[in-house]
Design goal:
The protein is an alpha+beta fold. The chain contains 22 helices and 18 strands. Bound molecules: adenosine-5'-diphosphate and magnesium ion (MG). Adenosine-5'-diphosphate (ADP) is lined by residues 216-218, 220, 300-303, 349-351, 358, 468, 470-471.
């Protein structure tokens, strides 16, 4: 029996019983949404007039009538109790990037000291978690540490189940005593409002009646699965979510056989349970497949209203992790758990609807086309003016490993339109304002767009921001990141550009019905395109030429988190956010502080765990192997053997040399831990080099850390 942990783990995985195929029950969607206080529940549990008012807030964005809170609380409590909930919690999204909850039971005592179940309007609307330990970036000193949570009625309450009961979760925003924002939901909601206002304003210019504006999001979520037996013997995965050591195996992803391959039955069983859990919560999981790297997968929902979709993605990440454990696996959401194979991202599919119309749908008549081209031009302008801010929202320790590593978009933000649409945009730019139509010119509002085919050429996977038929797909988000930040920025910058256009149109005093309207619009779009077309790039974003080309065009290339966070401090950005009431200057400053601090802390943790593993797990086995070699040489010399001794000598020399290096690099990392993050990263890289080389030299039966070939292929 080996006393090597890794071998135990392999045996445990190998000995796992594969469950036989069960005869499936007849398929049904009966459970969809059963754990959400959704429209059906609202209608069933609330008085008619109350339900109507609440639904007007949820579906049409009308301000909430505060007088209904008592009735809503009562109905929600009844509903939750029937589902076995004993507790409730305000569920919020602090700057840690994950979700937070603090449970209170429904239990209360009446005057006779009898237990009753109670849940009031106040409980629903406002919470006061002792929030002194959440990151606030100096917005809140601990002596005045009160943070407040406030109900977000536009995202439905839901039930979170555990093996022994259930909790009613109420989505809330989170702010400080003085009203400063401490979470990711508040700015997102504000940005949705800002964009809605700007869209309405533009539509008015086009002479359209008022309609409800909805921003939509469909986030595609990538993740890895590893068997829990391996995970448990990888302190780096446990502590940092990624492997700090590990030699890439001969076979990794080069055969390209995993992507869209047949899904293994163990994984499929996991995915099915995940979907079941998601569906119960009304989260419309739609697609599932194998991703590029071995042991990497993706799940994507049907798109929904943005605020809801972000909440749903936060829930989805939690469910992926929870269900994996039930299947003896661990779900890794880190952006780069394994060096040498692809990391994980989150494609952020974003669009705007006005009434029932998708504004990013080119449409099939000149008027719809004109609106589409106007919105498109606004987006081009917005992304060109604020590429830096979009980049900021993807900055993180984990994502630093991915962006620009030929598996994810580079750190340079650009827009992909596809050849066809790029051609149309060019035609608009050269387009004739009035009179005869020259060759390859487009008259906005007069000519009809050719129908855009959504063929394979429109599938440039290397672009950070791609037009994909009827939506934009922002692809630089990390898999573990909340989508709230990027969409807050996207909404705000597009709102600003829409307002820029509306203002110009309004100033002309020309109404949409007038003959000159489209001429004015054309002039404006021409000007915008000429000025901002440098942001459009339809080529290969991975090529080194692009980096030089982008530099020539003056596009920012913020390669690492430290640089990528700086735009938060710039005056132009602070002015923009203040103008739209998204963030004040102090709120932006605080965010910068929080994200910087998080970055430094995480690097220090990674460095710390690498050092500990090298010294306490790797060093001892190397020493042991060295000792055996030296002893063997000693014995062989005594035995006066003619062969083998020189080989043994070489082995001992090589191993001894690496052992010395290992010691030196540990000392260097230890010193670096007291210095800057660059020093830590450099020292970790150097240490990894030696450890990964040793992995290939040390007796396999002795190597303590589960290897890549095991974690990625045995499950
Ligand atoms: P892929 O990009 O992987 O080929 P799809 O383009 O079909 O997949 O969809 C990716 C995601 O985009 C899905 O979550 C889908 O619901 C979402 N999506 C589709 N249309 C819209 C839209 N109008 N707004 C936001 N998201 C959308
Ligand atoms: Mg996609």
């Amino acid at each position: 029996m080996s006393n090597c942990n890794r071998i135990h783990a392999i045996n445990a995985v190998a000995g796992r019983q594969t469950p036989a195929c069960q005869k499936a029950e007849s398929a049904s969607l009966d459970h969809f949404g059963e754990d959400v206080f959704n429209v059906t529940a609202i209608r069933k549990y609330l008085p008619k007039t109350v339900a109507k008012k609440l639904l007007a807030t949820i579906q049409e964005g009308k301000p909430l009538d505060a007088s209904i809170a008592d009735d809503v609380a009562h109905g929600m409590k009844e509903w939750a109790l029937e589902r076995g909930a004993t507790h409730f919690t305000h569920w919020f999204q602090p700057l840690t990037g994950s979700t937070a909850e603090k449970h209170d039971s429904f239990l209360d005592l009446n005057e006779d000291h009898e237990a009753i179940m109670s849940f009031s309007a106040k409980n629903l609307i406002m919470g006061e978690p002792d929030a002194s330990s959440f990151p606030s970036g100096g917005l809140r000193c601990t002596f005045e540490a009160r943070g407040y949570t406030a109900w977000d009625p536009t995202s439905p309450a839901f039930i979170k189940r555990h093996s022994n009961g259930a909790t009613l979760c109420i989505p809330t925003i989170f702010c400080s005593y003085t009203g400063e924002v401490l979470d990711k939901k508040t700015p997102l909601l504000r940005s949705i409002q800002a964009l809605s206002r700007s869209v309405s304003r533009l539509m008015k210019c086009f002479g359209k009646p008022f309609q409800h504006v909805e921003v939509t999001l469909g986030p595609e979520q990538e993740y890895f699965l590893v068997d829990r037996n391996f995970y448990m013997y990888r302190p780096d995965l446990v502590q940092a979510g990624r492997t700090v050591f590990g030699s890439p195996p001969p076979r990794h992803q080069q055969l390209e056989d995993h992507y869209f391959g047949a899904i293994r039955s163990r994984v499929l069983a996991f995915m099915t349970e995940v979907e079941h859990e998601l569906w119960k919560l009304g989260i419309p999981a739609k697609t599932r497949h194998n991703e590029v790297a071995p042991a990497q997968f993706e799940v994507a929902p049907i798109f929904e209203e943005l605020n809801l979709a972000v909440d749903h993605n936060m829930q989805m990440m939690e469910i992926l992790k929870k269900v994996a454990v039930r299947h003896g696996m661990v779900c890794l959401l880190h952006e780069k758990p394994f060096a040498g194979v692809n990391g994980s991202g989150k494609h952020n599919n974003w669009s705007i609807t006005y009434g029932k119309e998708n504004l990013l749908d080119p449409g099939n008549n000149p008027c719809q086309n004109a609106i589409f081209l106007t919105v498109l031009s606004a987006i081009i302008r917005a992304v060109d003016l604020h590429a830096d801010l979009l980049r900021t929202t993807t900055a993180s320790v984990g994502n630093d490993h991915r962006l620009g590593a030929n598996e994810a978009p580079p750190a340079i933000i650009s827009i992909f339109l596809g050849d066809q649409l790029a051609d149309i945009v060019e035609q608009v730019e050269t387009g004739a304002v009035t009179g005869a139509k020259s060759l390859d010119a487009m008259r906005v509002g007069v000519d009809a767009l050719p129908s855009l085919s959504r063929d394979a050429t429109d599938r440039n996977r290397t672009s950070p921001f791609a037009f994909t038929g009827n939506k934009f797909e922002f692809r630089a988000c990390g898999s573990s990141q909340s989508c709230a930040d990027v969409n807050t920025v996207l909404n705000t910058i597009v709102a600003e550009s829409l307002d820029y256009i509306s203002e110009k149109l309004e100033k002309t005093g020309i109404l949409s019905g007038d003959a000159e309207f489209h001429d004015e619009l054309q002039k404006l779009l021409q000007e915008i395109i000429t000025k901002h077309k440098r942001i459009i790039f339809n080529g290969d974003n991975y090529s080194s030429n692009w980096i030089q080309e982008a530099q020539r065009r003056g596009l920012p290339n913020l390669r690492h988190t430290m640089d990528a966070l700086k735009p938060l401090l710039e005056e132009k950005n602070q002015t923009l956010f203040a103008r739209y009431g998204i963030f004040s200057k102090s709120e932006l400053d605080s965010r910068y502080e929080v994200f910087m601090e998080e970055y430094h802390r995480k690097i220090r943790i990674e460095g710390g765990i690498a050092l500990e593993m090298a010294r306490s797990m790797i060093m001892p086995v190397v020493v042991e192997q060295y000792r055996q070699l030296v002893e063997t040489i000693h014995v062989a010399r005594k035995g006066d053997f003619k062969t083998g001794i020189s080989t043994l000598n070489v082995c001992a020399e090589n191993l001894g040399e690496k052992l010395d290096q290992l010691k030196v690099r540990c000392v260097e990392l230890e010193a670096a831990l007291g210095k800057l993050h660059e020093d830590i990263l450099e020292a970790m890289k150097n240490l990894r080099e030696v450890v990964d080389a040793l992995e290939l030299m040390v007796d396999d039966s002795r190597w303590p850390l589960p290897k890549y070939r095991e974690m990625l292929f045995i499950y």
